[in-house]
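Q: Sequence in, structure out?
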Amino acid sequence: MSDIETLKAEVKKLSTQAVQAKMDLHDLSEELPAQWETIPTVAQKCHEAYARLTEARARLKAAEG
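A: Exactly. Output:
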């Protein structure tokens, strides 16, 4: 598998994880005020997922030229 194909697979995987993190945050917001104590943890996981996705997309873009 080429480097670009590997990066594309990584971006796809990270995208799925980021969407799941977004949905977890969305679900939490709909359940408020229940579990309000988990807001920082869930938000941090979402933030980290999108940071990893953004970084991987930048590496893919650089690799594609």
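The domain at 3-64 is CATH 1.10.287.660 (Helix Hairpins).
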